[in-house]
């Protein structure tokens, strides 16, 4: 792979038309932990578990937004990108073909497990699994938070954002994010490493959320870093912060603070299944006349590292032979 060029490129018209990060899937030997962790800390709802014990977490009237499947190790299983409907899905599959992206259609059983009408699965150049889908099951008026709270930013804004670590940022990753998936670059802070590669974060957006996905390039590392869940009320974030501080089994990885880039007030914690979560409120929603600015600092205040090191789901990659 080559390092990313600095030339400005115009995204191709033939990109998949994604509306949101619609669902997330994880695998873990400790998947059952989420049956208490999700409701107790955040107020996430639960759907009936899968026949294999998969834990389904709810944020709104959708059947679920996050699935935690049983597995041998803690890892991200897939990111589910939502399309407007069948016509968009058929078009998107043709667009994937046009880009030379190998994909497979989900089987009827898999669609039943995802509770979607159809999905197509493929991997990105860093080997993370992505899915495009449409027609997820919902039940109007069915969602209740597991504890008294104002609920979550979800619905047409989707799950939130997901950040994955890659060992270097490359042209292939930029092409995949902007020209295959059609994301807009929200912000990027790449810097050259001593060996001439590019490290740092690249944040992408696909709807009014400032970002729905990010690659962070860290030399020698790869894996799931964090999922951000956004609450409707800052008080619910503060109450969760109190709970986490009172529980020794839930490490805080970054203290409460406000990002300058997206205004979100949040803190970070380590989940029982390895990856980190960011829980926040008050993130900016961008309009079409958004103008990209460059923050002078990552934080307005706070966000101090409490637990050092990356999430255990971010692992060293084998050096090239
Ligand atoms: Fe984040």
Sheet/helix structural class: alpha+beta
Under the CATH scheme, the architecture of the largest domain is Roll
Task: Name the CATH homologous superfamily of the largest domain.
Answer: 2,3-Dihydroxybiphenyl 1,2-Dioxygenase, domain 1
Task: Please mark out the parts with pLDDT under 50 across 5 or more consecutive residues, or reply none.
Answer: 1-7
What share of the residues does DSSP label as strand, in percent? 25-35%
Order of helices and strands: EHEEEEHEHEEEHEEEEEHEEEEE
Task: Report the principal-axis shape.
Answer: globular
Describe the largest sheet: 11 strands, mixed
Average predicted confidence as pLDDT = 94
Q: Oligomerization state of this entry?
A: single chain
Q: Report the CATH topology name of the largest domain.
A: 2,3-Dihydroxybiphenyl 1,2-Dioxygenase, domain 1
Distinct compounds present: fe (ii) ion
Helix content, binned percent = 10-25%
Q: How many strands in all?
A: 19
N-C termini distance: 15 Å
Task: Tell me the number of helical segments per DSSP (H or I, 4 or more residues long).
Answer: 5
Number of domains as seen in the coordinates: 2
The first-level CATH class of the largest domain is given as Alpha Beta
Cα-atom Rg, whole angstroms?
19 Å
